[in-house]
Design brief:
- By secondary structure, this protein is of the alpha/beta class.
- The chain folds into 2 domains: 28 residues; 196 residues, TIM Barrel, CATH 3.20.20.
- The protein is built from 9 helices and 8 strands.
- The longest helix is centred in the first third of the chain and has 25 residues.
- It is globular, with a radius of gyration of 20 Å.
- GO terms for molecular function: hydrolase activity, acting on carbon-nitrogen (but not peptide) bonds.
- This is Polysaccharide deacetylase.
- Pfam families: Polysacc_deac_1.
Length: 253
């Protein structure tokens, strides 16, 4: 009888360790439908998703992977609302199909970052395939814009420590988000607004989409901009948020 209980105690301990390991492994992944990054490491590159700043500034970011019908209304709204600088993360395969749209985004004053070449989950690929995809995206976006992209939002928003290291070696900073509009669900204009405005704080990176699959973003966007401004927020780029965070960290050191 004693052996029976000892055996089960060991089994319970083993199962507990397995469960803990499973949760830890899950924590290494960033998934697009989560709100913020859940993995960080004190050594090596980290993903940027929010600035540590007291300035009431936020960044509007847009992912694009297919279609050309939604981007124009979004660009027009940004112009009308005098949001001079936003960040657009584009799939390079999409950019090849719509080079004029890519150039227009840049001409209107916005920053273009990489969303990979193929819209495939990097975490399921080996290192060489990921490097090839990153390099292909870099080459295409550099040729279209005249500038080498330095910001990367991995396809699906999914990445782990391995992806962070590979991106760093390719000259990229990985950009996540702290506020998810969930506009890809087409939940209704009010739902998009409520997913953003009440939750936004200083330094947030806000995720939108500008692919043809989103039907309500262009309707919710002007409301979001007006309401955030009404709360005292202004709009800047991810690069500026990163710079302010680096500056503050340097002052602390």
């Amino acid at each position: 009888m004693n052996f029976f209980w000892i055996f089960h105690a060991k089994r319970i301990k083993q199962l507990s360790l397995i469960i803990i390991a499973a949760f830890f492994t899950a924590g290494l992944l960033y998934v697009e439908r989560t709100q913020i990054a859940v993995f960080s490491t004190p050594d090596g590159p980290q993903a940027f998703y929010k600035a540590e700043t007291d300035d009431k500034q936020v960044a509007l970011t847009f992912n694009i992977s297919w279609g050309e019908n939604r981007i124009e209304p979004i660009l027009d709204i940004l112009d009308q609302k005098e949001v001079d600088h936003a960040n657009f993360f584009v799939s390079a395969s999409w950019a090849e199909r719509y080079p004029d749209v890519v150039k227009e985004i840049k001409e209107r004053g916005h920053t273009i970052g990489s969303h990979g070449y193929q819209y495939k989950d990097y975490t399921s690929w080996d290192d060489e395939k990921i490097r090839k995809d990153m390099n292909q995206s870099t080459q295409i976006l550099s040729e279209l814009t005249g500038d080498k992209p330095t910001l990367l939002r991995p396809p699906n928003g999914s990445f782990d420590k391995r992806i962070l290291n590979l991106a760093d070696k390719q000259g990229y900073s990985v950009i996540h988000w702290s506020i998810n509009s969930k506009d890809y669900q087409n939940p209704g204009v009010d739902a998009i607004v409520n997913a953003i405005v009440p939750k936004t704080s200083s330094g947030d990176v806000i995720l939108f989409h500008a692919s043809d699959s989103v039907k309500q973003t262009h309707k919710a966007l002007p409301i979001v901009i007006d309401q955030l401004r009404g709360k005292g927020f202004s709009f800047t780029t991810v690069e500026d948020l990163m710079a302010s965070t680096i500056s503050e960290n340097e002052e602390i050191k």
